[in-house]
Each structure stands twice: as structure tokens, then as C-alpha cells.
Write a structure and sequence with these properties.
The complex is a heterotrimer.
Chain A (H helix, E strand, L loop, with lengths): L3 H16 L5 H38 L15 H11 L10 H21 L14 H9 L2 H11 L3 H32 L4 H10 L8 H14 L11 H4 L9 H26 L10 H22 L5 H29 L3
Helix pairs in contact in A: 1-2, 2-11, 2-12, 3-11, 4-5, 4-6, 4-11, 6-7, 7-9, 7-13, 9-11, 9-13, 11-12
Chain B lengths: L12 E7 L2 E8 L7 H6 L3 H9 L6 H16 L5 H29 L3 H22 L8 E2 L2 E2 L7 H24 L2 H7 L7 H6 L5 H4 L7 H4 L20 H25 L15 E10 L2 E10 L4 E7 L1 H7 L1 H5 L7 H8 L3 H5 L1
Antiparallel strand pairs in B: 1-2, 3-4, 5-6, 6-7
Helix pairs in contact in B: 2-3, 3-4, 4-5, 4-11, 4-14, 5-6, 6-11, 11-14
Chain C lengths: L27 H11 L5 E5 L2 E4 L7 H12 L3 E9 L3 E10 L4 E10 L4 E3 L8 H12 L2 E3 L24 H4 L29
Parallel strand pairs in C: 2-5, 6-7
Antiparallel strand pairs in C: 1-2, 3-4, 4-5
The chains are: A mainly alpha, B alpha+beta, C alpha/beta.
Chain lengths: ~350, ~350, ~200
């Protein structure tokens, strides 16, 4: 099937090179991927901006206020105004901070979060890469960020940052396990680590949310913990840790971190849609439309959780992860195995 | 933690000694807002002190005005007309609800729930509007006067008040549902910040924190002042001794305040609102203590026969409650600090004076 | 991974306080006579309903008296400890309240000008701790055996006691206008021992 994220950049690259009268297949290949990356980043960033807007507006409605409404139509450009504000702010490097660790973590975190989106297909004809083990790869990239967070917390030379970094690692350790076991149950049923295969399997049978409802709930909680949103945002709990590991970051660095957290939310919601909610399948509308409808629906769920729940304490999060979610995920994998063996699915 | 830290509502420092994330010892440091209030009072004559009493606590100005004027009335045996007392009670209870709502807002922010913050602030607006209708000011009221209150309530006030109360009671139930039914809130608040009743009494903790420990001491009941003996209300007590119990006490108190306001509006007698005040103040001493939204507020006045007090001493409930904080905090996690200190309802204006 | 949350169970020695303050157990007159029986030389009288006054209290007896009040007469709560500058002498004013008997007791104890010290009651009532610190902070009245008699409202290292009647703000922070309005460093009070001060009014 035609992949637009490859074919369109390829056409552009070929056109550019033919205008310049250069006939180098390697250069064509390279240019194609560069343009494709840029297109992907633009797509993701546009989505992130819409997500932030949706979150602000929805949160405002949940809280019985209006949300942003001054800049642009219905306040849509408020995010841009905020970004410009962050741009003109001074970038502060704390006096005793380790500048290498302090700055390199920014690159690692932003890059790793964007990298997740490269393996997440958005439609059968819109994906960046499609490796055999794309599901596994996505979670491997997901798990890079907490290490960078520890480095950031350490390099900031601030007690709150350090505590935030440690918390982030502890939280990731406890939530990665049930989440991956849940993912394994999906893999057991679908028989593949590939997102496209999983979606195709669901299209042929049933959405995995139906047989694996326990796994869906475990995954929902774990993914919220993984992307560190309320109620699991202890690494940057402002009431006790000021802003956790982000305390010392200022200006555009802080803005990038905030943006990154939404990229991760987007990626988390996308993965959840792909492995549990049937991906891009759906009647009448084109696949991309269904994909985005579902992703935004999941994101609205995240916002809803944020609006109605207080923050959980760090040791309680760990207790919840190890004592409740892990057994539940094991039960879930058992159900998946039984379904597979009995031949129901 | 602090003085510039998001959990400190106001300006104060909490030195915390931790082992990992467990608190071994804590020491609150206050005084950033010290204005020499008592010395300031010595240089002003009696009526001039009322407006600066507003500035003692910026979320419960009315109750501080009231405790000051009651102390002056006690010192010079000034009689207050019944209608004046009734209006004062209404104002005090509205102030209590507004103050508890501010507490609810800041407490829920500490726990990370911004929705409840905005809801509580929205409700508070109604009560601030009511107080504005009474006295024209929204935060620093300067409404009680020595011998009564500065002006009678407007004719439309009872209707406006009842309307607000009806709406508020309905919404308060919603908040209870939003907050209490949440499992996350329960695990954050239940069993956290244990304060033994005997410790609470010995350490001088008063107000909702004491009643949350199962001690049914409410000065409105145990040492009735103003017009409180005329009203029928329950003292809100919880036996949990933890953060959740303190939260429940405040929620119950809001319901009780609503009922007191309704009774006061119903029984409101006619008559003047401002009594006769002597031109010259004799020698003497007196004190008054009232149930502030935060605990036992106390004013001691020594008069030396001039128009200025010789000595004014203010007992702020939070000043003492903060001193008890280390014994509550010990053994809990760093992450519990906001919820425990939030449940005590800090107000630095009155504790630093 | 994580230590369990401390779950403290109410110890058995804690009484049930649910009946507290509903009705006064002993009348004020009863309390006054009990005090007079135990401490004959003390001037104690009923001022008005629910209020007992006790003036000119000898400072040596304060701990003994307060222990008696707490243990025998159920004065569970120290409302307030206040200092006062009477110009010729110092004064400490205690306000103690009893939830059980629904009354309040005021003790005024005068201290000589040259030795403003009195025994601390913060071992009896933990709530008096910071009030005594504040009184020391503002008046320089020393409370013996206090666990931590330090500045509480004024910054650490303050070398004056701001609520004393002889404390003049402008005297202390005098601005040297001849020297381009620069403020000289804070001068210590005349006495070298800042804890007591020697200004005799």
C-alpha cells in the first residue's frame, strides 16, 4: 500500500534534485528521509498544540471557567503566545549545575519523545517506519526518558530536582512491569509485535478492549503514570517538590519540556488506541480520521482524570503498582493465554 | 522548605530533617511577616485599632475585628444591642464559611486537584459578595465597631443571603461527592497526620484541628459569646485524629454555619445596631476569646486611662498550632507535608502579627 | 521498596473526650476555694462568670501552682502567656483555660526590673512554649528551663527587644544624615549582656 509519509517526501526530493540536475540515488534517499522527518515533526507538533489547546479548554470547562479565549479565535493561539513568552525569557544555568548533564538531558528527552512517534503508525498509509518489532521498540524508547530525568535531577544540583529524578525512576520501574506484561497479553492474542498486524487482527476479530478489559484498565493507569500526568505526576509535584526535576530549567528549555510531556501524552494515547481500541479501523470515515478521533477521545479521558483526582503519594503509587497492578496484569495474561489456547480468538 | 515554596501559603519556612523521604524532625520558622502589631496598637486609640485588626488575617478579617471589639467591650463593660450581636453573628458565620472555602481551595491545590480549588473559590465569591452587601468591602471589612456594628444590614440582604445559602448547600454536597468519593483523596488523607487528643490539648492546638482529634471544644458552645447562646447548632467533631477528620470537621462546620445564619435571619430582632460608647476610657483590663475559623482567638487589653491601650496581647491560633507541627509531622513522608500542614490551615498574617 | 505509612493506633491511656465541655464539672467558686486551700497566701478571686483572677503572684511558685492547676483542677489548655513592661517592673500574664470546668484563670506575676526571669511552664503545657519564646523575643523576659529560648518572630541575632517601652525605633536605627544618610550598623543596647538589658526606665 502507498505510504504517504514516504511517497510525498520522495516526490519532493526527486523534484528538488531534478531541478538542481543532481542524479545521486543516495542523496535522494537521504533528502527523502529528512523531509519525511520534518513532516512528521510538524504533524506531531500541530497535534501537540491542538492537544494543549484541548486540554486547557476542557480543563477550563471542568473547572467552570472559560479557558483561554483572548489570543486568536476562541483562544486557539494562546499556546503560541506562551511559547513566545518563554522564548524571550532568559535561559538560566544554575551556578553549581553540571552544564553537560543539564543541557544534554534536554536533547535526550525531547529527541527520545519524538522518536516514539516514528514507530507509531497513524494509518495504514501514513507511517514513518514499520519494523517487525515496532511495539517493543516503542516501549524501549518510552523507557529512555526516566534515565535522562535522573541525570537532569542530578545535574541541576538542587534537592528538589534530585528527589524528582529519583521519584521518576522509581515510578517508571514499578509501572513498566505491569504495562509490559499487559502488552504481552496483546501480543499473545495478535501473534505479532507489529502495530499494523495488531490493528489488522483487531479489525478481523474484535477490539482487544473487549476480551482484555482488565488489561486495558491496567494499561490506562500505567500509561498515565508513564507519561507522569496527574494523578501520577509525583516527579514534578509542585506542592512538595516545587517543580520536581524541572525546577531549575527556565525559558525555552522549560517550554520544550512541557511540550515534550504532551508529545508523550500523544504517543501514549496513540499506542493505547492501536493496541486496545482497534487503531484506525472504523466505518465511513478515512482511517486517519478514526485514528485521531480515538486518540483525542483517550486524551479527553486523561484530562478528565486530571480534573477530578488529586495527586497520589509516591509510596502509594509504588504500592499500587506492585501490589495491585502486577497481579492484575498477570491475571490478564492468563485470560489472554486461555483465549488463545481455546481458540476463541 | 520555604519561605518561597509552593506549599507555604504565606511566608514561612519549614526545616525538615529527612531520612530518605521519611521525616525525622521538623522545625517551623516564622516571623517573616512580623509587623510589631501589638506595639502598633499601643500607639493608636481604641477605634483606630479596628481597621488594622482587619490586617491580622487576610482571609478571616471579620472574626479578628470581632474579637478585638469584644475585648474592648469586656474591658469597659460596653453593652451591645441585640440586633448588633445578631448581625455580628451572621457576618462571623459568613466569614467562617468564606475562610473554610479558602482553606478547602488551598488544601486541594496542595493535593494536586485544581478543580476543587476553582470550585471553592467560586463559592467563596458568593459569600464575599454578601459581606460586601453588608459593609461595602470585600476583604478588609472594618465592620464591627466598639458597641455594635457600623451600619444596619440592607433590606435586601436576608433574601440575598438565603438564596446564596440554598445554592451553597446544594453545591457543598457536590464537592463532598467530588472529593470524598475519590479513593485517591482517601489514601492521601486517612491515617495521615495523626494527632492524639491529649497531645492536641497539651500542645494548645485549637479549632478544627482539635475537634478533628475528637475533643468537642467549640468556644461558641463551651464559652458562649455574642449571641451564640440563642442558636441551636451542633459542634462538629470527628474522632479520626487525621487529616481526613480535620477536613470533615470543616465541611460539617460549613453546614452548621449555614444553619446558624438561617436561624439568625429568622430570629432577627428590631432595634439599633450600635450601642452607647463612653467618651473616656477608664483604667482596667479585659480579654475576649472567640472561635476563629482557625481556632481560639484571644485578645487581652490593658487600659491605663488614656485613649490608647497600654498593652495589647493577641493569641493567634495558628501561632500555637504551628509550634505543634513537628510532633504531627514526625514519621510521615515528605509528600505528606503539604497535606498535613494544609489541614492545619496556615495563615501567616495572624501568626506573625 | 517503600516503608509502610505509620499507622498509629490511639493509645489506651487516651480518654474519651466526647463529653467534654458540655457542662462545667466544678463551679468557679469551688475552684477558688480549692486553690485557697492549697496555696493560702495567694490573692485569688472571681472576677465575673467563668473568670478567675489571680494577681501579684509570687514568681517562685509558678511551676508548682501550674502543675497543681493542670493535674487537680483540669486546666488543660494554656491559652496565652504575655509579657508586659510596667516601666518600674516587668509582668508576665498567664491565661489558662479549663475545658472541663469551662472557666478561665488569669495569673499576673510581677518580676523585678533588674531580673526579668521566671520559671518556664512549657514543660506543663506544650502550647506555652512559643508564647514564652515570643515573650522573651519581645521583652527579654527569661524563662528558666525553657527547652529552646530563642528568637521566634524577629530574626536570629537581633540585639534589642522591640516591645519594651523604652525601645525607640528611631534611636535604634538612627540615620546619620551628615554622613550622606548612611545608616550605621545597629548598635548594641547600653548593656553588654543583651539578654537582660539595664535600662531602668
Amino acid at each position: 500500500m502507498l505510504n504517504y509519509l514516504y511517497s510525498i517526501p520522495n516526490t519532493i526530493a526527486t523534484a528538488i534534485l531534478s531541478v538542481l540536475h543532481i542524479n545521486l540515488p543516495q542523496l535522494n534517499y537521504l533528502l527523502t528521509w529528512v523531509i519525511a522527518s520534518i513532516v512528521l515533526i510538524v504533524v506531531v507538533m500541530v497535534n501537540v498544540i491542538i492537544l494543549i489547546y484541548v486540554e486547557r479548554k476542557l480543563l477550563g470547562r471542568f473547572m467552570d471557567r472559560r479557558g483561554p479565549f483572548v489570543v486568536g479565535p476562541a483562544g486557539f493561539f494562546q499556546n503560541f503566545a506562551d511559547a513566545f513568552k518563554f522564548l524571550v525569557k532568559e535561559m538560566i544555568l544554575p551556578e553549581n549545575a553540571d552544564s553537560l548533564g543539564f543541557n544534554s538531558t534536554l536533547v535526550i528527552i525531547v529527541a527520545s519523545s519524538l522518536l516514539i512517534m516514528t514507530v507509531v503508525p497513524q494509518a495504514p498509509n501514513f507511517f514513518f517506519t514499520d519494523p517487525e518489532l515496532s511495539l517493543l521498540l516503542a516501549f524501549a524508547i518510552f523507557a529512555i526518558e526516566p534515565f535522562a530525568v535522573v541525570i537532569a535531577g542530578w545535574a541541576s544540583n538542587n534537592k528538589y530536582s534530585l528527589l524528582g529524578g529519583f521519584r521518576s525512576t522509581a515510578q517508571m520501574m514499578s509501572y513498566e512491569v505491569p504495562m509490559l506484561i499487559t502488552v504481552v497479553s496483546v501480543v499473545v492474542l495478535a501473534g505479532s509485535f507489529n502495530f499494523r498486524d495488531i490493528v489488522n487482527f483487531q479489525a478481523g476479530h474484535v477490539w482487544f478492549v473487549v476480551p482484555l478489559i482488565i488489561g486495558f484498565i491496567v494499561f490506562l493507569i500505567s500509561i498515565v503514570a508513564e507519561i507522569e500526568r496527574i494523578p501520577f505526576d509525583t516527579p514534578d509535584a509542585e506542592a512538595e517538590l516545587v517543580h520536581g526535576w524541572m525546577t531549575e530549567y527556565a525559558g525555552i528549555k522549560f517550554a520544550l519540556f512541557q511540550l515534550t510531556s504532551y508529545v508523550r501524552s500523544f504517543a501514549g494515547a496513540a499506542i493505547m488506541v492501536l493496541i486496545f481500541l482497534g487503531g484506525w479501523t472504523g466505518p465511513f470515515l478515512p482511517p486517519v480520521a478514526w485514528f485521531y478521533i480515538k486518540v483525542y477521545a483517550v486524551f479527553v479521558l486523561f484530562v478528565w482524570m486530571r480534573a477530578s483526582l488529586p495527586r497520589v503519594r509516591i509510596d502509594q503509587i509504588l504500592n499500587l503498582g506492585w501490589r495491585s497492578l502486577l497481579p492484575l496484569s498477570l491475571v490478564n495474561i492468563l485470560i489472554a493465554a486461555l483465549l488463545r489456547i481455546s481458540g476463541v480468538l | 522548605m520555604g519561605p518561597q515554596h509552593p506549599f507555604t501559603h504565606g511566608l514561612w519556612t519549614l526545616k525538615v530533617k529527612v531520612d530518605g523521604e521519611t521525616i525525622i524532625d521538623a522545625e517551623p520558622i516564622i516571623g517573616y511577616l512580623h509587623r510589631g502589631f501589638e506595639k502598633l496598637c499601643e500607639n493608636r486609640n481604641y477605634p483606630q485599632i479596628v481597621p488594622i485588626c482587619d490586617r491580622l488575617c487576610y482571609v478571616a478579617s471579620m472574626s479578628w475585628d470581632h474579637v478585638y471589639v469584644s475585648a474592648v467591650e469586656d474591658t469597659f463593660d460596653i453593652k451591645v444591642p441585640v440586633r448588633g450581636e445578631y448581625i455580628r453573628v451572621i457576618a462571623l458565620e459568613i466569614q467562617r464559611i468564606a475562610s473554610h472555602l479558602i482553606w478547602l481551595a488551598s488544601f486541594m491545590t496542595d493535593l494536586g486537584n485544581l478543580t476543587a480549588f476553582l470550585y471553592a473559590m467560586r463559592e467563596r465569591e458568593m459569600f464575599i459578595d454578601l459581606l460586601q452587601a453588608l459593609c461595602g468591602a470585600r476583604l478588609t471589612y472594618n465592620y464591627p465597631r466598639i458597641g455594635g456594628v457600623s451600619q444596619d444590614m440592607p433590606r435586601t440582604f436576608p433574601r440575598q443571603c438565603l438564596k446564596a445559602l440554598d445554592l451553597f448547600e446544594k453545591r457543598l454536597k457536590e464537592y463532598e461527592y467530588l472529593i470524598e468519593e475519590s479513593e485517591v483523596f482517601r489514601i492521601r488523607s486517612e491515617g495521615v497526620g495523626y494527632l492524639r487528643p491529649s497531645d492536641a490539648m497539651n500542645l494548645g492546638v485549637t479549632g478544627p484541628a482539635l475537634r478533628g482529634s475528637g475533643v468537642p471544644v467549640d468556644l461558641r458552645r463551651t464559652e458562649p459569646y455574642s449571641a451564640y447562646p440563642d442558636f441551636d447548632f451542633e459542634v462538629a467533631v470527628e474522632k479520626g485524629c487525621d487529616v481526613f477528620a480535620r477536613y470533615r470537621v470543616r465541611i460539617k462546620e460549613m453546614y452548621e454555619s449555614c444553619s446558624i445564619i438561617r436561624q439568625a435571619l429568622k430570629k432577627m430582632p428590631p432595634g439599633p445596631v450600635l450601642g452607647k460608647v463612653p467618651r473616656h476610657f477608664p483604667r482596667g483590663e479585659g480579654y475576649a476569646r472567640t472561635e476563629d475559623p482557625r481556632g481560639e482567638a484571644f485578645f487581652y487589653i490593658q487600659a491605663d486611662g488614656t485613649d490608647r491601650p497600654y498593652r495589647v496581647k493577641i493569641r493567634s491560633p495558628i501561632f500555637v498550632t504551628v509550634s505543634a507541627a513537628p510532633s504531627i509531622l514526625r514519621g510521615y513522608k515528605i509528600a505528606d507535608v503539604p497535606s498535613i500542614m494544609g489541614s492545619l490551615d496556615m495563615c501567616l498574617g495572624e501568626s506573625d502579627r | 521498596m517503600s516503608t509502610p505509612t505509620p499507622t498509629i493506633v490511639a493509645s489506651k491511656e487516651d480518654r474519651d473526650y466526647s463529653g467534654l465541655g458540655i457542662k462545667a464539672e466544678r463551679s468557679v467558686e469551688d475552684i477558688v476555694s480549692a486553690i485557697k486551700e492549697k496555696f493560702p497566701g495567694i490573692d485569688v478571686k472571681v472576677k465575673k462568670a467563668g473568670r478567675i483572677e489571680c494577681s501579684k503572684f509570687p514568681r517562685e511558685k509558678i511551676v508548682e501552682f501550674c502543675t497543681f492547676l493542670r493535674d487537680s483542677l483540669y486546666f488543660e489548655h494554656a491559652t496565652c502567656v504575655a509579657g508586659n513592661d510596667l516601666k518600674r517592673s516587668w509582668e508576665v500574664i498567664y491565661h489558662l483555660s479549663s475545658y472541663r470546668n469551662r472557666c478561665m484563670l488569669q495569673i499576673r506575676s510581677e518580676l523585678p526590673r533588674d531580673d526579668p526571669s521566671i520559671d518556664s511552664v512549657s514543660r506543663i503545657w506544650g502550647g506555652a512554649d512559643w508564647h514564652e519564646r515570643e515573650t522573651y523575643d519581645m521583652y527579654g523576659i527569661v524563662f528558666n528551663n525553657h527547652p529552646k529560648l530563642e528568637r521566634v518572630l524577629t530574626p536570629e541575632g537581633t540585639d534589642f527587644f522591640p516591645f519594651r517601652k523604652d525601645f525607640k525605633l528611631l534611636d535604634h536605627w538612627k540615620i546619620d544624615w551628615e554622613n550622606k544618610g548612611k545608616r550605621p550598623p545597629p548598635q548594641p543596647m547600653a548593656s553588654t549582656d543583651t539578654r537582660f538589658g539595664d535600662n531602668n526606665g
